[in-house]
Every structure is written in structure tokens, then in C-alpha cells.
Amino acid sequence: MAIEKKRPRGLKSSAKANKKAKVEEASTEIPENAQTIVIEKEVEEGDELGEVAALLESAIEKLEENPVEALALLRGTIHESDQILRKWESEESLPAFFYYNYGVALYELGRLMEDEEFEPYLDAAEERLEDGLKQLKEDDKELYSKTHLALCKVWFAKAASQVSEDDTVSDLAIRALAAADKIVDELPSKVVIELADVVQNHGALYSSLESRNKFITWAKETLEKTLKEEPKNAQALYVLGLCKLQVAHYYLDNLNEEEEEEEEEEKTKLSEEEEKAYEAIIESKKNLEAARKAFLEQDKLMPQVLADLAEVHLNEANLVLGEEKQNKVYEQAINAIKEAQKLIDEKKLDYELPEGLVAFLAEYEEEQ
């Protein structure tokens, strides 16, 4: 079938707005199964600091698949932490790991609270994490790295609100990137990938290639280093694919008006900007398809990966010359969308596909 060419720029689903699923209102109390969770994690009776750590660990585990339950657990973590802080009477300060858990819970809760300002949560998280650094023992390198990782996330989140029209990179963003660079070699690969994802997402906020590349290049090089050691690391492949998709977004967003008008006509050649976008899209597709395969082998495939892959297919289709080839790529996008929907239904996931993908599927099916 012939489909009108539409560049789905609003689909940047994956990398930005839809990164977190829609969270419904949840109780401010600790969920009924919180004590069970603590017991399962073998916390000694009366160990309040251990219980807080267990609550946070459980919340982090549920962030992707069950954000509603994670929200309740995070609130429980903060409630218990606040109570401990208020009641603490010892002359000795609370340990550094307590402030780390408290700060991380505040940051993650702020990310999930879509109807509230993020900044107050970030300020509170930064304060607690800084408190933790003051109590940190010199030989505790693991907690040192974890605390600075959490601070990097807080600083990047704060720096996001400082991105201006002139695309100047703020001092805070530079500080965050420097901190990331300082600790990255000390982190396990899973955390390195998480950090690279934070950095590439920040880079996507800039319009200029110079500002964007400062962050995306760092993320790409970091991920490529990880993949040399673990070539089938699904998450590393996935985030690397997103990095390359951000490069494509830059070139697609900067096509001039004449190139836009040519979309109505049959094109025989891509412009220089379109060639660069197409090259980045093909590289992104290669990584995302490899990530999909690796996630499937682990039975850990999530609809977000398929949504990103569908976006890549759609952008590729809009640059392919020739209607027959274009429609084959559109079909690949449709297959990815349907696979994502099936996954959501089978696993009863609290995830909504981006509106642009849903609308495209509906239009496609209407024309069948």
C-alpha cells in the first residue's frame, strides 16, 4: 500500500517523554507487602537502616515494570528515612549509606511525580547525598562511586532546566560530565550503561551539534568500551542505538524548508543532511535489532525497545528512495509496533506506546 510520507519527529518517544510510564495516584503509606519484602531480603529484626535499604532496593527493582508499586515503596523509603533522622539521638552521625538511600529515593520519587515540580526533589536529594559524602569513609570506594553516580543524575536533571535558546552548555552540566568521567572506570558495566543513558539523554536536549556531541560522543565511546568486553550486552546495544538515533534526530530536525517541500515530489537523490541522517539511522537500527535479539534470548524484551525500533524504521522509510522499498520498511515498523502491543498485553505491563506510533498503526490498518 502507498502511505503518505510523514517524518515522525514527534515520536522521540523512546528517548524522552515516554521513558517513564504513566503513573497513577498511589497511597503515601508503605504498601501492605513492604514488611514481607524486608523479610525476604533478610533484614535483621529492629534494623531500621537495613529496612530502609531493602525498601529502596525493592523500589528500584520495580521502577520499569511496576512504577505504581515503586512509587509507594519510594514514599515508604522516604517516610522511614525521615522518621529515623528525626529520632536519631546518638552523638555519632548516621552512616553515609543512609544518606545515599535517602537521596536516591528522593530523586527517583521526583522522576515519577509527573504532576509536581521536579526541582524540590532534586534539591532535597542533592542535600542528602552531599550529607552522605561528609560521612563517607575513605576506603569505601563502592559507596563513593554510587554516591557520585547519584549526584551526576541529580546534576544532569538540574542542568536540563538550564538549557537555553543559545544552546550554551551550563557549568552544572559540565560539572556533571566531569564527575561521570571521574567515576566511570570504577563502576560495574550495568551502572556504566545507566550512566551513559543519562548522559545521552541530556545531550539530546541541545539543538546545536557541538553541544549535543559533547555528551552523546562521551556516551557512545563509553558504551563501545563496554561492548568490547561484553559484545552481547543487550542494554549497552540498546543505549548505543539510542545515541545514534539522537544523531539522526539532529540532521532530520535541521532539514531546510526546500527539502521539506520536496517530500511531496518523487525524490531521486538524498541531500547531504538526509544522507547523514540515513547513515545514523542505519547504524541505530543495527544496534537496536541486536539489542532486541539479545533481550529475547534473556526473556527480558521490553516494549520500549520495540517502540524505539519502530521509530527508527519509520525514519528510515521516510528517507528510502522508491515506494516499494519504502513500504517494506514501513511494514517492519508495523511489525515492531504490533510486537510491542502483544508484549504489553501478555505481560500486563504499565506502559503506553507513544501516540504517534499508535496513530500510524491505526492509519495503516484503515488503508488495508
UniProtKB/TrEMBL annotation:
Signal peptide as annotated in the record: none
Gene Ontology cellular-component terms for this entry are:
nucleus
Q: Where is the protein found, in the record's own terms?
A: Nucleus
In this chain, composition skew of type Acidic residues spans: 255-265
Q: Which InterPro entries match?
A: Nro1/ETT1, TPR-like_helical_dom_sf
- Has UniProt tagged this entry with the keyword Nucleus? yes
List GO BP terms, alphabetically. positive regulation of SREBP signaling pathway
**What domain of life is recorded for the organism?**
Eukaryota
Pfam families for the chain: Nro1 (PF12753)
Provide ranges: composition bias, Basic residues: 1-10
| Alphabetic keyword roster | Nucleus, Transcription, Transcription regulation
The UniProt annotation puts the region (Disordered) at: 1-29, 255-274
Family assignment from sequence similarity: Belongs to the ETT1 family.
Q: What is this protein called?
A: Enhancer of translation termination 1
